[in-house]
Amino acid sequence: MVVNLSERHSLLSNWVAELRDTEMQKDRMRFRRNLERIGEVMAYEISRVLPSVDRDVTTPLGISTCRMLSAQPVLAMILRAGLPLHQGMLNYFDHADNAFISAYRKHHRDGSFDIELEYISCPSLEDRILIICDPMLATGASLVKTIQMLRAEGTPREVHVVSAIACSVGIDHLRREQPHVRIWCGAIDEELTAKGYIVPGLGDAGDLAYGEKTQS
Questions:
Q1: CATH classification of the domain holding 76
Q2: Closest CA relative to residue 115, chosen from 139, 81, 88
Q3: How many domains does the chain contain in total?
Q4: pTM for this entry
Q5: Is residue 58 part of a domain?
Q6: Inside any domain, residue 113
Q7: Fewer C-beta within 10 Å: the chain N or C terminus?
Q8: In a domain, 176, yes or no
Q9: Would 208 be classed as within a structural domain?
Q10: Which domain holds residue 199?
Q11: Comparing 189 with 216, which gets the higher pLDDT?
């Protein structure tokens, strides 16, 4: 299942537009905050489909039966670009457990690249709801490899992927390799460059949020 939140206009569409805007991108703090706000909206939307239970809550005047999450999710984040999106989700899923993954593209001179995973910090995922934050779903290669690695920490009950912008190529690849994953995105673009960047996309989310990096 793929949920594209831009299919119906909301404030999220405005924030995605600001992420793309080259003039707005000059303000790193606003860029990070827009990713964070998108994470907050995504958390709300995902919460609507998560398992819930009725619980009695004692008030000063009596008992109220309230609907609440039956279990807290695990929020996983791919460093470094995923930090603001993850924080937005954590603002809402404020009792969630968390996982952190270092995954990056190792580029070769011919323009190709491999996905390198060097670090993971994760609780047990057995029968847990796993939500993975990665602001750009481009080729889908890093997410496929990340999910494969995370499954070594237990078999999740559900897996959700959250991206601000996704490419249809990456969505198709992810669905082929991980057909049970539910994908949530703020917008879907149709093209990739030869180097695997989304067009029109927004550029390198990590660089725009935190500054340019070397490619060594």
A1: 3.40.50.2020
A2: 139
A3: 1
A4: 0.91
A5: no
A6: yes
A7: C
A8: yes
A9: no
A10: 2-51+70-203
A11: 189
Which tens digits make up the pLDDT trace of 176-191?
A: 999 999 999 999 999 9
**What's the distance, Cα to Cα, between the start and end of the chain in Å?**
37
pLDDT band at 118 (very low <50, low <70, confident <90, very high): confident
C-alpha separations of 207 from 4, 144, 151, 210, 214 in Å: 25, 22, 29, 5, 10
Distance CA(49)–CA(191), nearest Å, equals 30
pLDDT range class, residue 119, cuts 50, 70, 90: confident
Nearest to 78 by CA among 17, 144, 124, 151: 144
- The total number of residues shown for the chain amounts to 216
